[in-house]
Amino acid sequence: MARQKSKPEHYVNNKEFLAAMVEYKKSCRRAKRLKQAKPPVTDYIGSCFLKIANHLSYRPNFINYTYRDDMISDGIENCLQYLDNFDPVKSNNPFAYFTQIIYYAFIRRIQKEKKQTTIKQKMIADGNYDDMTLHPGEDREFKNQFSEYLRQNLPKEETEPKK
Known about the structure:
2 domains, 163 residues
């Protein structure tokens, strides 16, 4: 007897997610009509955001970053920020909508971190750390091995001035 392969379950059920989003939008409209505060996001919607962000962070183009937790946090923050922009009338796929939001949040975080790394490398290349590490009475022949190592191992295109 042949064994049937079971269909793999997705980590976020799109139909349930859509139903939760529709219900949340209804509660937001009701609160606005009654001039009350906007209701908090449900635990289910928040857990969907977290699952999407976590699973997206395991893609090969995001897995090896040391600031992956920051990327996940940025993705969830952006989902909460743009939650009101999702319109169930226009789209019945909240999974794709929020995956795109998280994806671009990851890209923005990577760009910010690369910019900070470039600034650090320029500071190391331009800084005169030897003067700071000399103790009183030591001569100028003293070299800080760590700063020398950093200068030698910086990528050449980032240390050379652009023309």
